[in-house]
Amino acid sequence: MAFGQPKVQYKTIDQMRLMRKAGLVLANALDEAVAAAVPGARTGDLDTAFAKVLAQADATSNFLGYYGFPATICVSVNEEVVHGIPGERTLQDGDILSIDGGCIIDGWHADSARTVIVGPADPADVRLSEVTEAAMWRGIAALASGTHVGDVGGAIDDYVHSVDGPALGILEDYVGHGIGTEMHQAPDVLNYRTSHRGPKIRSGLCLAIEPMLVRGSIDTAVLSDDWTVVTTDRSRASQWEHSVAVHDGGIWVLTAHDGGAKRLGELGVTAVPLD
Ligand code: MG
Ligand code: MG
Question: What is the DSSP secondary structure assignment for residue 44, as one 8-state letter?
Fold first, then answer.
């Protein structure tokens, strides 16, 4: 298309209900991957735990085979920001890792990520993860209060720059996205404020909101495995992600067990189920 923005796939309520099915399986699978993340575990063990839940639910992985990606989750440890490949690496005390996974049920995708710290944690890493997660919830809440997709990035940006303490960087090289019959759809969901407002927020819009924050420079590089993204200054990173649906009644977080009720409630937003 020469002009305008890529077309957004707006979903019907029934399609969003199918996405919720995928979202709940994914939430359960991430629970198991997180539980497997202990000192001494191999990152590949997390992948095994995750894949088992998908198999039990007859869900398909949307990561496995994606441009040749060899696993069902990405596990990104310490200075690895995203797209780390799980394998033989053994987790050590104090490692901070993001676990990013997805699944497909009846052709509909879900995508979600969490950050975990194993063993005794550096308080600066705890803060990094907590601010990243809180920023994600601010971005999700903006889907209820805002008018355009750009409001999501504005809310994330404002929050990250409002917290006390050492500045955290918001990654710009990787962003959130629309989600539906493919994992990655229009529109891009930036995690920072720009003058570009993006598409209007309206019923049927489903977005994966995924801020990635770093303790140092936001410059990144891709390792020789052609996947793993690291910070060039080796500073540590965190990623949190949920897939969210906007419907006539409000918003519902497809990949949160409670639809986002608790965390959105703390921000004054009522999460509204899809029924
Ligand atoms: Mg993801
Ligand atoms: Mg994503």
Answer: H
Ligand number, closest to the Cα atom of 26:
1
DSSP secondary structure letters along 136-204 = HHHHHHHHHH-SBTHHHHHHHHHHHHHSSSS--EEP-SS-EEE-SSSSSEEEEE-SS--S---SBP-TT
How many residues comprise the chain?
275
- C-alpha 274/C-alpha 29 separation (Å) is 22
Calculate how far, in angstroms, residue 181's C-alpha sits from the geometric centre of ligand 1: 15
The type of residue at 75 is V
- For tokens 């949190």, what's the residue? 240
Give the model's confidence band at 275: pLDDT under 50 very low, under 70 low, under 90 confident, else very high. Answer: confident
Rounded to the nearest angstrom, the distance between the alpha carbon of 13 and the centre of ligand 2 is 22
- List all residues 6 or more positions away from 237 whose beta carbon is below 8 Å from its beta carbon: 76, 78, 79, 80, 81, 82, 96, 98, 128, 171, 212, 213, 214, 215, 231
How many angstroms is it from 112 CA to the middle of ligand 2? 7
Give the Å distance between the CA of 104 and the centre of ligand 2.
13
pTM (2 d.p.): 0.97
